[in-house]
Write a structure and sequence with these properties.
By secondary structure, the protein is an all-beta fold. It has one domain. A 5-stranded antiparallel sheet has the order 4-3-2-1-5, with no helix packed on it. It is globular, with a radius of gyration of 11 Å. The relative contact order is 0.32.
Length: about 60
């Protein structure tokens, strides 16, 4: 499976009860290899100092 998002793009993190983070806007800062066919991304929120690794299925396009 290919990456659907590009470095520099802003996306939304899909919140579910298993993920221990708030949703919101995240900027893609790196592309990582897929795990079980799901591409991974290095992302950063404007509201946090840390970076996160998330799978593509946990992201959604930011609404304009």
């Amino acid at each position: 499976m290919d990456h659907n998002y590009k470095v520099g793009q802003t996306v939304k993190l899909v919140v579910d009860r298993l993920r221990h983070t708030q949703g919101g806007n995240f900027k893609i800062i790196g592309l990582l290899p897929a795990v079980a066919g799901d591409p991974q991304y290095l992302v950063k929120s404007d509201l946090e100092n840390c970076r996160r690794v998330v799978v593509q299925s946990a992201l959604a396009k930011q609404k304009q």
